[in-house]
Automatic annotation (TrEMBL):
Listed Gene3D superfamilies: q2cbj1_9rhob like domain (2.60.120.620)
Alphabetic keyword roster: Dioxygenase, Glycoprotein, Iron, Metal-binding, Oxidoreductase, Signal
InterPro entries the UniProt entry points to: Collagen_mod_GT25 (IPR050757), GT_PLOD (IPR057589), IPNS-like_FE2OG_OXY (IPR044861), Oxoglu/Fe-dep_dioxygenase_dom (IPR005123), Pro_4_hyd_alph (IPR006620)
Protein name, per record: Fe2OG dioxygenase domain-containing protein
Residues annotated as signal peptide: 1-28
Cofactor: L-ascorbate
Length: 740
């Protein structure tokens, strides 16, 4: 079955290659003179990248070992092994062992990319005068003792690496047969001993590509290579250069611990990303679900995690609900680890969970730690035989409702939508890792985060929101693929496992998917804690709390309402703001006595006292000041032209409570301000009766106040005013004396 599939794939590739050859047949050399081999047992992300680079340069590798179990020893990355590769190639070369003109090129398959076509590779090979040429590296491996037997070199790397080599068929064949080798023997050791045999080395013209004229092994050389854009006749593409040896390698190998470096280079090399066409590899394998019937759509486990108190969780949940993907194809899994969010989650569950294909919730009462819960969500995906596993943590706001569909269509094993804290460089991926596996910044990180460069990026760490193709999950058990790993937090454990399994993690910024919430200063011991998020989560704060009609205040075709002379009326905040502010004040509860003596004031005396609470009593003074500057000041400058004072100053910011049996009204007075704002926090006729503001000089009253709208008027001299009597209920207003 798998074999049939690959045969099919190769037939398709052949067509592409034929077209390619047709285009580039200016050179007369028979490409058949060269045979390209690799060993791969199954499709991996690395092998797909290899294949893509081969197709890009019209190369058609012969794949050995496909569909067979790996026989070259366990865990080849850390332990010796790989003799099987030699035995496979030996057999394959049997028919060509006397073919003197035939060149053989062998490459590893999972961590290699072609950077050039075969003509260029053959030309470079011929220049070396070698009959057998291997790539070189800086470490003598697997037996460092052999170092002293190696010839000394003047420049470049001294030691043999067996991941990339080429030569004439009879010579390569002879080398493969110079001594028997077991499948589980080490291939690199085998070739090394061959190389160190001086007779054999001389007879075969057996050389190492010390200076990376053709082969670039990256391990130990990552700081010696750079990418640079090279412009040909038709297009620009990124090429690799070795800045130490001044060569341009034609094949690159991410051997040993350099594979994350190859992953980073692979985002650009082999025309994966070019300045003109941008992300060319994005289109590779991409699918289109738009015409797929609902019943045929892949099933998804959507796993939501509330691991820390998070601002704007209600909006987060609405965005989950708004995802454009049929709920009947989604299994919903929720881990809520935060007591504070229980009502939010419960209200979502009560309203919507029934629409999903299935639903499971773990609540704070279950006391299940994060990594266990995340593992359970993987198990849930297995139980439900899901096609995809989609994680969305509570800080991930998916503003783009097509996120899930777009990620599925991207057809990668693991792909994350890029999410960034607005105006910050903090995102849900890392561009590079330090040696110990922690954050390091990649050369292109800022370009990606700021969307100067768009595409699909292979990165070593993602978190918060990502989609996993469950076919991969099903390949491994919980010992290999888990969120639980010593000394790692859950995300790092998962990514570290994926790295070890050679599964690529992509992050996409091809379109805007959403943004990240910053939970750092969120203090749920406060009442209405989201109100305090005006600094750390300004975008979400504005969305929730600024009146949707606020921009209308500046509409040149509209006149600002003026209920009394020089008293303007403008929509400013939402009802939610009003309710939250009242809640903050009532929860605090220490309303002033309404007396002239007031120890909250510097002078200790208030001439016209009200029953009120000051903003600084509830820790909301800095927030209010920034609100004045960002939202009130522009309206002031618009209606009272020519007066600028930025930032506005204000010492008196408070909420007043009018109540028939407490303080129902306020006698006429001037305010000690240049201008005063007065926001109605609740609704006349519903929450209270009576009330309003009367301006005596103009004999003009504003009584039909609108919730969330502010009155803005001069404070002194002209606008002598009084608070009208509240006859029933409670009236709340928010007052600020600006620029006293
Ligand atoms: C996804 O892409 C791979 C190639 O990378 C392709 O073989 C496969 O058919 C694609 N999946 C679908 C569902 O088309
Ligand atoms: C998931 O991955 C497998 C293996 O790569 C692939 O065959 C399959 O098409 C992918 N599933 C979807 C729905 O893209
Ligand atoms: C003020 O206006 C009210 C009606 O709006 C009117 O009845 C009253 O006579 C006016 N008072 C003065 C002093 O003009």
């Amino acid at each position: 079955m798998a074999l049939k599939k690959i045969v099919n794939t190769w037939c398709k590739l052949e067509v592409i290659i034929l077209i390619f050859l047709h285009i580039s047949s200016t050179k007369t050399r028979e490409i058949d003179d060269i045979l390209v081999y690799t060993v791969a047992t199954s499709e991996t992300d690395g092998f797909q990248r290899y294949t893509r680079s081969a197709i890009e340069y019209g190369i058609k590798p012969n794949i050995l070992g496909w569909g067979e179990g790996w026989k070259g020893g366990e865990n080849i990355r850390y332990r010796p092994g790989g003799g099987w590769k030699i035995n496979l190639l030996k057999k394959a070369l049997e028919p060509y062992k006397d073919d003197k003109n035939r060149i053989v090129l062998f490459t590893d398959g999972y961590d290699v990319m072609f950077l050039s076509d075969l003509n260029t590779i053959i030309d470079a090979f011929k220049k070396t005068n070698a009959r057998v040429l291997f790539g070189a590296e800086s470490a003598c491996w697997p037996d460092p003792e052999l170092e002293k037997l190696y010839p000394v070199v003047e420049s470049g790397k001294r030691f043999l690496n067996s991941g990339l080599y080429m030569g004439y068929a009879p010579d390569v064949y002879e080398l493969l047969n110079y001594s028997p080798v077991k499948d589980t023997d080490d291939d690199q050791l085998f070739f090394t001993l061959g190389y160190l045999d001086e007779d054999l080395r001389t007879r075969l013209h057996f050389k190492l590509d010390y200076n990376s004229e053709i082969f670039q092994n990256l391990n130990g050389a990552t700081s010696e290579v750079e990418m640079f854009p090279e412009t040909n006749k038709e297009y620009t593409e990124y090429r690799l250069k070795n800045v130490v040896t001044h060569t341009q390698p034609l094949i690159v190998h991410g051997n040993g611990f350099s594979k994350t470096n190859l992953n980073a280079l692979g985002n650009y090399l082999a025309r994966a990303w070019t300045p003109e066409e941008e992300c060319r590899h994005c289109k590779w394998g991409q699918i289109d679900l738009r015409r797929t019937l609902v019943k045929d759509l892949p099933t998804v486990v959507l796993a939501l995690f509330f691991e820390m108190p998070t601002p704007f969780v209600e909006e987060y949940l609405m965005k989950i609900q708004d995802l454009e993907y049929p709920k009947e194809r989604i299994h919903l899994f929720i881990h809520n680890n935060v007591k504070y969010h229980m009502p939010h989650v419960q209200s979502f569950v009560d309203q919507f969970s029934g629409r999903y294909k299935s639903f499971k919730q773990i609540t704070p009462d279950d006391s299940i730690p994060e990594w266990t819960a995340r593992d359970l969500s993987l198990d849930y995906c297995m139980q439900k035989d899901c096609d995809f596993y989609f994680v969305v943590d509570s800080i991930a706001h998916l503003d783009n409702p097509y996120t899930l569909q777009l990620l599925i269509e991207q057809n990668r094993t693991v792909v994350a939508p890029m999410l960034v804290r607005p105006e910050k460089a903090w995102s849900n991926f890392w561009g590079a890792l330090t040696k110990d596996g922690f954050y390091a910044r990649s050369h292109d990180y800022l370009d990606i985060v700021y969307n100067k460069r768009k595409g699909l990026w292979n990165v070593p760490f993602i978190n918060t929101c990502y989609l996993v193709n469950a076919t991969m999950l099903k390949k491994y058990d919980r010992t290999q693929l888990s969120y639980n790993k010593e000394n790692f937090d859950a995300d790092m454990a998962f990514c570290s496992n994926l790295n070890e399994l050679d599964v690529f993690m992509y992050v996409s910024n091809r379109v805007d998917f959403g943004h990240l919430i910053n939970p750092e200063s969120y203090d749920v011991t406060r009442t209405a804690p989201d109100m305090y998020q005006i600094f750390d989560n300004a975008r979400d704060w504005n969305q929730r709390y600024i009146h949707p009609d606020y921009p209308e205040n500046f509409n040149p075709n509209k006149k600002t309402l003026q209920p009394c002379p020089d008293v303007y009326w403008a929509p400013i905040v939402t009802r939610r703001f009003c309710n939250d502010l009242i809640s903050m004040m009532e929860a605090f509860g220490k309303w002033s006595e309404g007396k002239n003596e007031d120890e909250r004031l510097t002078g200790g005396y208030e001439a016209v006292p009200t029953r009120d609470i000051h903003m600084n009593q509830v820790g909301w003074d800095p927030h209010w000041m920034i609100f004045l500057q960002r939202w009130v000041r522009p309206v002031q400058e618009h209606v009272f032209t020519g007066y600028f004072h930025d930032p506005p100053r204000s010492l008196m910011n408070f909420v007043v409570r009018y109540k028939p049996d407490e303080q129902p009204s306020l006698r006429p007075h001037h305010d000690s301000s240049t201008y005063t704002i007065n926001i109605a926090l609740n609704e006349v006729g519903k929450d209270y009766e009576g009330g309003g503001c009367h301006f005596l000089r103009y004999n003009c009253s504003v009584t039909d106040t609108k919730t969330g709208w502010m009155l803005i008027h001069p404070g002194r001299l002209t606008h002598y005013h009084e608070g009208l009597r509240v006859t029933k209920g409670i009236r709340y207003i928010m007052i600020s004396f600006v620029d006293p």
